[in-house]
Design brief:
Number of helices: 5
Number of domains: 2
CATH class of the largest domain: Mainly Alpha
Radius of gyration: 39 Å
Largest sheet: 4 strands, mixed
Strand order of the largest sheet: 2-1-4-3
CATH topology of the largest domain: Helix Hairpins
Oligomer: single chain
Order of helices and strands: HHHHEEHEE
Bound molecules: zinc ion
Length: 232
């Protein structure tokens, strides 16, 4: 088997991988991703605040409705009071209690409504601040994106050229070897290593003499420890 062609192929393939890794690890790209996460986080926050504001608005409607009902109740209690016989002390006292309870309820409702207005104002303020943060972050993001595109344009062209070089070598490698190479590469890289001092140079495991002679005879041997293909 022609392992040297595979070796030459791997050399160029690893160069391409190294360029791709460099592009991925670009500090600008890392910043860009952080900036994107920040914006997404703000969008989530914005939505949560909006939900809270909507919940307050709903609750406010309920409270205002309850307030109107209680006010109407007091009016009817006052009408009943006027119709009462002033001599009927028990009935007058009972109705007065009822009116007092209604007034308490009104006070409670008004208190909650006032709290809600305070909360509403606080949420509005938060909303403005989050919106501002997000707008600033978007500016940063756009700038970073432009920077990254400029930076990576050169590197991506380089990568394309390297990938083309790799593709050109594909036909020089035996298909069965290529299949093996690609299968190993899914788990470990580099997929092919040289035999060095009787060891697999991928994981430095010493190999039994039977394995060594197989390698020397040019057979396809995979390291039992790391799974790499070992060549002479
Ligand atoms: Zn190994």
């Amino acid at each position: 088997m022609d392992f040297e062609s595979l070796w030459a192929y791997q050399t160029e393939d690893l160069k391409a991988d190294a360029i791709a890794t460099e592009i991925r690890r670009s500090p600008i790209r890392v910043k860009l991703e952080k900036s994107r996460d920040f914006i997404m986080e703000r969008q989530k926050q914005y939505k949560q605040i909006e939900d809270s504001i909507a919940a307050i608005a709903d609750r406010k409607d309920v409270l205002i409705h309850a307030l109107e009902n209680t006010i109407a109740q007091i009016e009817s209690q006052q009408q009943r009071m006027e119709a009462l016989d002033p001599e009927d002390g028990d009935a007058v006292a009972a109705l007065r209690d009822e009116v007092a309870r209604s007034r308490d309820e009104i006070r409670t409702l008004e208190k909650e409504l006032s709290h809600m207005s305070t909360d509403s104002a606080a949420y509005d303020k938060q909303l403005r601040s989050v919106r501002l943060d997000a707008a600033k972050a978007k500016q940063t993001f756009d700038q970073l994106k432009t920077d990254y595109e400029n930076e990576s344009k050169v590197r991506k062209e380089e990568l394309e050229q390297q990938r083309a070089r790799v593709r050109n070598l594909e036909s020089t490698v035996e298909p069965s070897l290529m299949a093996e190479y690609l299968a190993i590469k899914k788990h470990t890289t580099p997929p092919v290593v040289r035999l060095q001092y009787g060891q697999c140079s991928g994981c430095n495991t010493s190999l039994p003499s039977a394995t060594l002679s197989k390698i020397r005879n040019g057979a396809l041997v995979e390291c039992e420890t790391c799974g790499r293909m070992i060549i002479q």
